[in-house]
Amino acid sequence: MRAVALAVIASVLIAAPAAALELAPFKDKLFAYPGILAVADNGAHVTVDYRELRDINERDEVPERRVQRSYVDLAPRRVQREAAIETPSGKLNYVAVGREKGARVITIYLHGKGGSRQQGVNDYTFGGNFNRIKNLMVRNDGLYLSPDVIDFEARGRAQISALISHYRSASPGAAVILACGSMGGALCWQLADQPHVAAGLAGMLYLGSMWNNDFRKVEAIKHRVPIVLAHGSRDKVFPVEAQEAFYRKMRKAMPGYPIRFVRFETGSHGTPIRMIDWRDSINWLLSFR
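^ thats the sequence. predicted structure below, dont judge the formating
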């Protein structure tokens, strides 16, 4: 009975409020959180039951390298291309998937150290979760971008800023969402402090990523851009305690601010990228537009 009750509570609390733009379902049962251990802060803080044996070994044909075929739909490859733009800080290579003009929503994934644009479009790693975000964008008249991040400082910031401006011009009404993996969060916080970027952001997703204790000064925070923080409880790169402390500080300093914390119990550094429910999180972000 307790498990059933928690499931009912979770379904109510996690579901995003009705929004003008809402992503349609895609393989929701396969990618739904496997269990909810706790819900706090009126649904803003959710603890997810993560188990490596189930969520990696039983999900993947080859653990961490190739997910089972049922999790993957390769249709987006028909509208996936390698691309590049020239920016004031040099050439930027990236992969674009979906509608490059007139998109309704644009999701941009920024990888961490040691990653590349290919990480964000690999259909089979991370439990097929990148394949899902590609499908969600394509099936909802959206665009997914996975760029190379040359560094996490001025050049990287300038290049990604130019990429955002380029595609905003092509899709003026699009909701732009930044998804930041690991050290990619450093770049996301820098971008969030640029007025021309912050003003049009629909949301930010930090996946096993960084916090910003000077959040009050950040332009995107001033615009009340909604934030999802997803973190593994056993992250050895960025301790979960630091990210949760940031979440608490924001809630205390800015009551009612749209921020959500998804904690994957026993999860490691890469767990949020594998386990984040893209549709649930993006619909929640979009509900504040």
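The chain has eleven helices and twelve strands.
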